[in-house]
């Protein structure tokens, strides 16, 4: 994912949105995560560390900043409650966050 401080112009944002929308999900699949939990009692749930929490907070802040940049570039005059714009902005930010790996 691009760094949130990098400028994002409308043309660049539109091109990334089109690239995200042109994917053929029936061929590529949809990126998902599966989490497996071993509950056989061999050690319990691992402790959450402050370092891991800080990394997670930094990553979340970076993704949210990029979402806002896409929203500003793609739809500066749209209402915040416009669900179509929201869905498009989230889709393009997620596509970029996955580093476009599904199309390479």
Q: What would a concise description of this structure say?
A:
With 104 residues, this protein is mainly α.
Mind explaining what this structure looks like?
Helices cover about 55% and strands about 0% of the residues. With about 100 residues, it is an all-alpha fold. The chain has one domain (about 10-104). Helix 1 crosses helix 3 (about 50-75), helix 1 (about 10-20) crosses helix 4 (about 85-95) and helix 3 packs across helix 4. The protein is extended and about 55 Å long. The protein starts with 9 loop residues before the first helix and ends in a 7-residue tail after the last helix. The mean pLDDT is about 75.
Number of domains: 1
- Our measurement of the CA-to-CA distance between the termini, rounded to an integer number of angstroms, reads 15 Å
- Radius of gyration, Cα only, in angstroms? 17 Å
Show unreliable segments: none
Number of strands: 0
**Alpha plus pi helix count:** 4
Written as H for each helix and E for each strand, in order along the chain, the element string is: HHHH
Indicate the mean pLDDT: 77
Mass-distribution shape: extended
Say what oligomer this is: single chain
Query: Helix coverage percent of residues?
Result: 40-55%
Structural class call reads mainly alpha
Fraction of residues in β-strands = under 5%
